[in-house]
Structure formats: C-alpha cells, structure tokens
What we know:
The structure holds two protein chains of two kinds.
Chain A lengths: L2 H8 L28 H28 L1 H8 L1 H34 L5 H9 L6 H12 L4 H6 L13 H25 L3 H9 L4 H30 L2 H5 L5 H11 L4 H27 L22 H32 L5 H34 L3 H15 L2 H15 L7 H25 L3 H9 L4 H28 L4 H6 L7 H10 L3 H25 L4
Chain B lengths: L8 H4 L3 H10 L4 H13 L32 E12 L2 E12 L3 E5 L6 H9 L6 E6 L2 E5 L2 E2 L7 E4 L11 H6 L7 H15 L14 H13 L5 E5 L7 H17 L4 E5 L2 H7 L2 E6 L2 E6 L1 H6 L4 H6 L4 E14 L2 E17 L4 E5 L7 E8 L4 E7 L4 E6 L10 E6 L4 E4 L4
Parallel strand pairs in B: 3-9, 3-10, 7-8, 8-9
Antiparallel strand pairs in B: 1-2, 1-4, 4-5, 5-6, 10-11, 12-13, 13-19, 14-18, 15-16, 15-18, 16-17
Amino acid sequence: MSVSRMARSLSPFPRRPPSPEGKGAPARSLPSQARRAPLSLLLTATTIALLLLLPLLYLLVRTLGIGEEALALLLRPRTLRILWNSLALTLAVTGVALLLALPLAWLTVRTDLPGRRVWSLLATLPLVIPSYVGGFALVATAGPKGMLQELLAPLGVERLPAIYGFPGALWILSLLTYPYLFLSIRSGLHSMDPALEEAARSLGHSPWQTFWRVTLPNLRPSMTAGALLVALYTLSDFGAVSLLRFNSFTRAIYVQYLSSFDRSLAAVLSLTLVALTMLLLVGERRIRGRARYYRSSAGTARHRRPVALGRWRWPALLFTLGLVSAALLAPAGVIVYWLVRGLLAGEQLLPVWEAARNSVIAAGLAGVIVTGMALPVAYLNVRFPGRLSNLVSQSVYIGYGLPGIVVALSLVFFGANFAPFLYQTLAMLLFAYAVRFLPQAMGAIRATLLHLNPRLEEAGQSLGLGPRAVFLRITLPLLRPGILSGLALVFLTTIKELPATLLLSPTGFTTLATQIWSATDEAFFARAAAPALLLLLVSALSILLIMSQEPGD
Amino acid sequence: MVDERKPTVREEMADKKLEKKFDKKFNVRNWELAAELRTLEEGRDGDAKAARPSFNHSQADHPATEPSMTQAPPLGLRLRGVVKRFGEVGAANHVDLEVPSGQLLALLGPSGCGKTTTLRLIAGFEHVDAGVIEIGGELVAGPGVHVPPEKRRVGMVFQEYAIFPHLNVLENIRFGLHRYPPHLREERVKTVLELVGLLGLEKRMPHELSGGQQQRVALARALAPEPAVILLDEPFSNLDAGLRVRVRAEVRAILKQANATAIFVTHDQEEALSLVDQVAVMLHGQVQQVASPQKLYRQPANRAVAEFVGEANFLEGRASGREVECALGTLETQVAVQGPVDVLIRPENIELIPASAQAADARVRSQLFFGHDQLVTVQTTSGLLLDVRLGPAYHFAFGQPVKLRVVGPVMAYPRSSS
C-alpha cells in the first residue's frame, strides 16, 4: 500500500479540470480528427451541466437582486467579524498543519526513523475521518459532558478548559488536514534532485544550512500546494466548525438559514465565501504552473543516504507517536468508550439501523444517478474535444469546488422559490449530491475512457454498427470498470456528506451523518458513537477501494 | 607565487578585527586572504597555505608561474590504497592517485568501473573503507578520520549541473562565498563571471539559460570559493555532440587560467585524451595506468587498457628482448619482454601495399568509409582478421591482395598461460 497512491486519490479537489491539451491522454482523438458530436449527446451533456449550474446561478442572481442592501449587510460589524474569524482560522490551521507536516515529512522521507513506512501510513489516515466525526470526538472527550469530565469528576475537577470556539476548531482541523501538507511535502522531497544538496555541501554548507538554504526553498511549491488544499478545506468545512460553535462563514450561513425568515444575509455570506474560495482555487492553479520552473534539468536517480538521527530518534518518535495518537487513536478510543458506555446503559441501536439504511439508500441512489449523469458529459469531453465540450466539463467542476453549505443553501433558495414540490424531497437531496459530486464520477469514467482506444469504436463502425450500437456494444462494456469505480466513489463520498443532507433531506430522514451531528449538538454522545464508528469503517473501506482502483505507481 | 598587482585586501578591509588576526599570523598577500578566511575559522595550520595555488592569476600576466619555493611542487590531491565496498561489490579496489596542483587529470573507464565512486569519496559524500585521501596536503579521509564535505575544499560540477533552481546566476555563484566579507565576495563573483564569460547574465534564472550556459554557471559556482580541487562528473555528456568539442576546449581554458587542480570523470576517450594533462584509466575499481594521453595511447600498460583506449589488433607472438616474432614477421617492441606474448598493433600503424596474389600477406575483406579516414579489414593468409586505418585517398577492391607493413615499434604483453 503506497502512501503516494493515497495522495492522489484523496485530494478533495479534482486533479485537473479537463483541458484541451489532454495531458497524459494516450488514446485521444486528435483535434484534426475530431468528429462533430452527435446532437443528442451535446444536448444531453449541456442540459446536465446547465441543470447543475442553475442553483448557483440562482444564488448569484438572488444576491445581486438584493442590491444596495447586500453591501450594507456585508459591511456590518457582525459580518466583518465572521470574515475575520474565517480568515484567522484558515491562517492558523494552515500554519499549525505546516508545523506538524514538515518535520513529519522530513522524518519519514530523509531519516532513519524506525518504522517510517508504518508512520507514513498512519500519518495519512486522518483523511478518512469526516470533520464532524472529528468534532464529535473532541467534544465527547474534552467537552463539558465528555469523557474526561466524567473520569475526572470523582477527583474533584469541576471544569475543563474550554474547547468550544477557536481552540477546538483549530485543534480538530489541524489534525484532520495536516495529511494534505504531509503528502504534498513528501512528494516534493522525493522528487528533489539529491545533487542539489550535495552541491550545497561541497560549497561549504553544513547539513542544517543546506536544509535552510536549499531544501526548504525548493519545497516551496509543494508546501504552497498543500497549504492551499488545507486552506480550502478549512474555509469550506461545516461539520467541525458548527459542532465546535465557532462562528465562521459556514456556521453563520447555517445559523442564518435556521433562524431568520429572510435569508438575505445567508445569501450574502454565501457569495462572499464563494468569492474567497474562488480566489484560493485560482491561486492554486497559478502555483501549479509556476512550479514548472523548479525543475530545470532532469535529475539522475541517485542513491541517497538517510540522515542518521542518533539520540534524536527518541524525541522524533515521541513527536510522531504523539501526532498519530492525537489524530487517530484518541478519536477512535473516545468513540469506542462512548459506544461501550452507551450499550451498557441500554442505548437503543434501532435508530442507528434506520439511519444506516437511509444512508445506504440515499448514497446508493446517488451513486447510480450521478454516475449516469456523468457518463454523457465524460464521453463528450473525451471523444469530442472542442471549445463547447470543454466549457461543459469545466462548468460541472464549479459545484465540486464550492463549500457544501453554499450548494445546499442555493438549492434551498431554488427549491423554495421555483420548485416547491421538490423542496425537502429525496429527489432534491439527490440533485444536491449531483451538483457536489458529479466530477468525481466523471473523473473515474474519463480515466477509463482515455485509455480506451478510439480505433476500437471505429472498428465497430467499419463492421456496420451505428453510433448507438457502438456505444452500447463496445464502449459501455469496456467502460464498466470506470463506471463502477465512479459509482463506488460517489457512494462513499455521499454517505459521509453532511451540510446538504442537513438542509435538504425530507423530514424524518436521518442519515448516519445527520445523526452524529444532532446527537453531538445535544451532547448525547452515546447516541453518536455507533454511527461514528460505522462511518469510519465505511470511510476506511472507501480509501482501500479507491487505492485498489488506481493504476500502480 | 608572487603577485603585486592589486593593493592588498588588508587595506581594503573594513573589519579591523580580522585584519589584526592576519597580522599576527601571516605575512599576507592579497590573494591569500580570501582563501584564508574559511580556513581561519577552522584554525588550520598557516604553513600549509604557502603551498596553495592561486586562482586569481591569469597566466598572461605571470608567464613564469613556477612556485618560488624550495620544496617539491605541492600535490593538489593524493589517494593511497583507497577502498570502498558496497555490500559484496568492490567499487574502489586500492585506488592510488596523485595529482600535482594545477594539473588536469581524467579518470577514464567504462560504466561501473568505480570512477564516480572515487569522485564521491574525494568529495566526502561517501566514507572510505580503507586508505587515505589528502587534499592540498591535508588529510581528509583515513583511518578514524572523515572530514565532512562542507569542510573539504572541494568544488564539484555535477553531471546534471545541479544549479539551484530557486536562485539566479549571481546568487548561485555567490552561494559558496558565505563566509567572505561582502566586498570581497562581490569582487570574487565578478572575477569568476568574467572568467567563464557570463558577465551580463547575473539576474537570469536557471531555467532561462541554455545547457552550455548552465554548465558555465556550475563551473563558476564551483570555482568561486577557490577550492583546492575541482571534480567534474561527466560534465559534457548532457551537451549536443556538436557543442561538445567547443565547450570542452573552453572549459579547459578556464581551468588552466584559474590554475585549478581538476579531475574529470568520463567514459569518453576522445574527451579524456584531448582535454587533460594526465589520464588515469580505471577498470574494475582499480587504476590500471596513469600517464599522459600520448604515453597512454602509445604504451598502454596492459592488454585491458590497450583494448579500452583506442582500437587494437592483437596477434600472438613470441618475444625475445626487443624483438617479437608473429604472423606479420619480426617486429621491434617498445619495451623488452620475453616469452609468449600478445602483440598490440594499432590500426593506423599498418600500411597496405597492393601486391600480387603470390606475394600477398592478406586480402581485403571490407571497407568502411568515414570521410576523414576509412577502416579497412583484411584477412591474412593464416585467417587472422586485422583492422587497418587509412586516409580517404586510398581505394581497395574487395578481395584485393595486399602486403602488410607495420610502422614503428609495437607493444607486447606477456600472455597469461591458459
């Protein structure tokens, strides 16, 4: 099991929106050979893309329709405070994650730390923990009614230091997002030419000096890329931030949605958040381009001697163990504690069973529908490259990059005003999943389709099959692995989804995610433990599945 | 090594403290100061410096560059009995090398012969398993001693140049001068930039440079801190063939002008023979022969070296003293030898004379034309195939009978009894 494979599969953001150059596309139609796309396909794909864009367009229109008042709302002290909170949290989490990830990456790649492979794997695992499960774990451990309080009460400890608000959010988000930086820096370290550091040594620099003057500057692209991922994750996160009662954008949007009848403020907040997210996404693309300059000559794969830690082995191990415990063992332990406690206290498991059933139904339907919707878009993008098809495929990525709560809110607006019959039905929820996760299915299908030689389809045509028959008898069967993996991906991502499910699910329709969330909010920890455990197992399973689908390193 | 061109740096230096240090210790000359600054901090012995070569000289200014000393010419580099094993494999097997300072040496050998390992041992990136390495007269590797790379005064030019991509040309070259006082640093960088011909490109980033320019930056960077030895690891293999010859000549000129002691590692014979003062041929981790290019080519030390450097024809023969009997008659040898031998005859040392079928020694079997010369293969009456190099003007028909004549004394190697 390779850590770098995990890296590729776990990025929350698409590897790259499809582009005309077709990087790494071995069997693509040449632009000169591009056929005109059949009208039915074009119409279907465009309709799907437009449908998915509609809610967000509506949000935009709605907010701009507020007019002058929108600006006033934005500049209110409360709103500015929320802005400040979000930015501060993002910066702080990025900083802490960097402080955790950099030494860890260096230790596992460049030194002789005992058990480095194991540590690398364990260090990456926090990615499987949904942020609200992390929030639950923290609150259930150190909150007023949490495990520590219960254990320490007999000893006379009355109150524990506050974990709600900034401290708690910082703790949880840092521990859950540092793996992005970790993986990114690791790959940067691996791909660095050893000759650079040797050159620095031969020019009179000690190992320490070499690290500061050569290694670190050359790691800047990977650090920036990882930091952007962390920042995007933090900015968009809903689960942890809302459970820990930290008033950043996502929580404020949710609170506004719940409380006021007029949701203008929520709309304004959403749009601001979208603007910030777009800024980060644009920054990420720019960084990726610039990183090219850091590889000026092809480095030879030279054997590199690991740095001997000597006495420093023990502090290093302590640090690594501490990090892994805090991020993995502690949450797992707390969940088990509350599970056992709940069972012993006679906690009912029936609600859990119901929630699990609902989760599976919703996620299963989502998988099928979303993959079905992704198929024409992916096919259009790969087989008929061109300006329009690229526009279509790039537009579906917008919903993917946005915070879940924003997508959910825009659908609430859209549903409430345009399609009241759909509002709070399962169909609406499935539509929300499609807006959010279609690109995942698309990515999986595209990957398989790119490796499918178009000559096979042409051979079918030469044997007398019409385009529809070619698709059904040749393309579709060969696409099956891609379709299935897309389905699995969407299933596993949907089952963990929170904000859209919270806002849009029909009354009484609880999923595992919403159950954890509401139980934690009301401090009924025992009730949240079993679903949390279930979700962790499902999440871990999804990682294994994703990795087994990936082509080998 | 006398130099009185510039005002002494002592007069220029603002730092009085350092000045006092020098006053106490040495009778200082300006070019020495810069070289001394680094070693000053390590507190090394001052006497060794008298032997160190100057890198600020241009030979045009000082045609008489003989050291005005009573001792023997200093050794830039010495290896004695150096051994390095990687697991079972002996990459370096008792390597002995001596490079006088200011000389260029090529380590020539096929891939995997241990030359890159030797280079890395000299630089300090690997530990020696046995043996001794001295740089500039100081022990850097030996029993119980391993001076780390940053403390050795070794400059290295890597095969892929390894220029820091995050720094521009000026910053790259300046990188090794971090212990120099600022104004000395700038002066030194300018000198070196001028030396390699890159003035005006200071602000460029590495990815904006051509391959040849990048290589010059790498060379300048290695030369800037005035190392005792410069190591170049196959520095020309990344260049197009057409560029290579010109760049090689330029690099040699730069190194000679800087009076540098340099070791080239290469598998390219042409490069080795044309560039350096001495060639060390390395096979299977051992130095087989160290000699000037001419001597190496004319008198290879053994059969393996003869086969590796240049083209070779081998005949069986029997030698007694300075004469050897073989299929081509009685030939004179360069060195006295006895008993059964393998006789080396270089293709360019055989003459072909058209003859009648009865008088012929051999018949022409094939002809390969290269423009500036040609390779003709002949088969002797005894069935032996020989390669012959001729100028372009000759023309032989297939099967034409010829007489063979060997020019000059040959080399003969005792044949190991099989």
